[in-house]
Amino acid sequence: GKEVISLSIGDPTTYGNLVVSEKAARAVADAVMSGIANGYAPSTGLKTAREAVAKFYTDPKKGVHVEPEDVILTSGCSHALQMTVTALVDPSGNQNILLPRPGFPLYNTIAEHVGVEIREYPLDPDRDWEVDLDALDQLMDSRTAAIVINNPSNPCGSVYSERHLEEIALKCRKRQVPIIADEIYNGFCFTGLDSPLMGSLSIKTPVISVGGISKKYLVPGWRLGWLVIHDADNALKKVRMALERLATLIVGPNSIVQTALPKILANVDEPWFQGILSTLEDNANFVYERLKLIPGIKAARPQGSMFMMVNVRGVSPDDLTFARDLFDRQRIIVLPGTVFGVPGFVRITFSAPKHVLMEACDRLQEYCEGSTSAQTHDAEMNDSECSSLSSPLTESP
């Protein structure tokens, strides 16, 4: 049978074609051999690691100054998201949180866990998955605890312009709604595109940025993330205290990787990352151009990250059926759009090697052409049956 091709997992290490920076690996090896990283670190993170993250987010040209006290180290970005939502939501306050649709399913899982009402704001596939600002405005009210903005996007592969981010920030400031900025794919912007960090915008509103080294440095298994509090007016004073308390629950993240973090952020050279980004962009363009040749499906050209959403309604009205049949017939794994809140789509990851993507596109085309041909045949048969039923009946002589 055919070998299984997985285009479903957002793990850049799956196929081994994207290789971690030697400098990052050396930084961790040095931390191990130093003998100083074997004990507990402070629950909010090592001072040196917090200083390194603060330096990364500081932008004097934009008037952005982040202090180490504004940074809390976490066990990956997912942990940072959990802590941030938990700290912002008052469990007895009958509050709601605004999440993107389509959006990373973990957002909903965390919100359900803390018991807050979920309100999903739509992203527009015809406008490169930008936020529907009118819908967003209508969903906000006095009980809105926070809004999650994911940029660059998983699952959409979109990258928001500074103008669009400022439009979002302005609405949040008017309603006094804090922003949770999921920026784990920061820097994953393809040619001609750029997107600022949410905390660096000229429109100042409370922002908690979450990020980490999992994606940019290709090390999701190292489990080190962070949250950064941007709060010029000290509106999040109680939230900051809650976050510091929540950090004690795991007694701090991995001390070895924390020890290595200053070297990772300072020494991993940009040419290495640009090489990774170039590979992903080349893959994204290849897959997009191939998909345009396949009947029954359509997609927007990815602008960043390592994902794209594909509309499969022309092949099957049910994305769950599409994903199941695609695996059964062609041994390709994709994630149904229903997982992300948008039925009729599937998400695919384009971080696999080019030859794997070529084989996947060949199989996908074979599947879609077979499915659309079958649909056409069924439709013709139905039309034929309807015609015969509507013909006048005559008796035999």
Descriptive overview:
The protein has about 400 residues and is an alpha/beta fold. It has eleven helices and 14 strands. Strands 2-9-8-7-6-3-4-5 form an eight-stranded mixed beta sheet, sandwiched between helices. Strands 10-11-14-13 form a four-stranded antiparallel beta sheet. A two-stranded parallel ribbon has the order 1-12. Strand 10 and strand 11 form a beta hairpin. About 45% of the residues are buried. The C terminus is likely disordered.
Structural class: alpha/beta
Helix content: 40-55%
How many DSSP helices? 11
The spatial strand order of the largest sheet comes to 2-9-8-7-6-3-4-5
Q: What's the β-strand tally?
A: 14
The fraction of residues assigned to DSSP E strands is 15-25%
pLDDT averaged over residues: 93
Poorly predicted runs are 386-397
Largest sheet: 8 strands, mixed
| Backbone shape | globular
Topology as H/E string? EHHEHEHEEHEHEEEHHHEEHEEEH
This entry's quaternary arrangement is single chain
The rounded distance between the terminal residues' Cα atoms is 58 Å
Rg from Cα = 24 Å
Q: What key phrases describe this protein's structure?
A:
single chain; 397 residues; alpha/beta; 4-stranded antiparallel β-sheet; 14 strands; 41% helix; globular; disordered C terminus
Short description:
The protein has 397 residues and is α/β, with parallel strands linked by helices. It has helices at residues 22-34, 47-57, 76-88, 105-114, 133-139, 162-175, 237-246, 255-267, 270-291, 319-330, 354-390, and strands at 5-6, 71-74, 96-101, 117-124, 130-131, 144-150, 179-182, 207-212, 225-230, 298-299, 307-311, 332-333, 335-336, 345-349. The radius of gyration is 24 Å and the shape is globular.
